[in-house]
Amino acid sequence: MALRNILTKEEPTLYKKCRPVKDFNPRLHQLLDDMAETLQKANGVGLAAPQVGVLRRAVLVIETNVPEGEDEYIIELINPEILETSGEQDGPEGCLSVPGEYGLVKRPEHVKVKAQDRNGNWFEVEGEGLTARCFCHEIDHLNGIVFTSKCERMLTEEELQSGEY
Ligand code: NI
Question: Label partner for 47 (CA 20 to 30 A): which of 1, 6, 60, 152?
Fold first, then answer.
């Protein structure tokens, strides 16, 4: 495994639409393994392939809603599609490509996604709260959308510190 460089918001690559993954081969597995290492090193909760310069529809999301005593785990989503959403949450959102900045973004509270795994098998997965937010945020990346373009407003340092916004 190897760390990959995370592109920041100035890079035009982040604003391009990604193509579907067609080959579920060792090259894809290497990409996913590298992304996992990069994500964990950066202490993030999600990472999309375009953030490491690969314009393919592949993302990682860390499932953080786990029972006490159990480990968080990475969900690999290849060619993901949102099937259903419900509810609404409004809260701060950040991105490893926009370091140190956070903005208020409305997202569904509950999201059901269909995707392929690294071997091409389709599956469905549901997420709530932060995980639902993360599914939406990472899938946006695949369509060239960075959260700063859809947030109501960015948060100030004071708001972030106080947690009041
Ligand atoms: Ni992001």
Answer: 152
